[in-house]
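To whoever is on call:

I kicked off a structure prediction for a single chain this morning and the downstream step that reads the tokens threw a length-mismatch warning. I double-checked the sequence; it's 140 residues and nothing unusual in it as far as I can see. Pasting both halves so you can look.
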Amino acid sequence: MGKDNLPEDEKLTSGKHISYWTDSIAPPTYSPLKENLETDVVIVGGGLGGLSVAYCLLKAGKKIILVEDGFIGSGETGRTTAHLVTALDDRYYDLEENFGEEDVKLIADSHRTAIEFVEQTVKRENIDCEFERLSGYLFL
């Protein structure tokens, strides 16, 4: 079933919803790929996940090509609040019922590790993005 057949609230990744981030600056432009290239890895998607994988592979000496059907950060990443948290949409107690305690610990650890990765990358690359650790609260 295509996105056009989904209920309105399930079309949130369609690009229809414009965030402050994508509305406040001109998007970068890149030329479309017009030739055959040799590479070690092709990464599909230029959001936070795809860019993180590209960054790590480049640091490891791999030759990569990243393809994006919009502009860098124009998808789900561009519609976020830029708020990195370990709280998930699914509650940990629900995840534990389905996957068990050990897997839920891995899930929580993976989110903590991802936040640490972003923080360390910001420091190492001297990225001026006002990264700051803050207390967070979840109200149920």
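Update from on-call: the warning came from a stale cache, not from the record. Cleared it. Sanity check on the structure: The chain has four helices and two strands.
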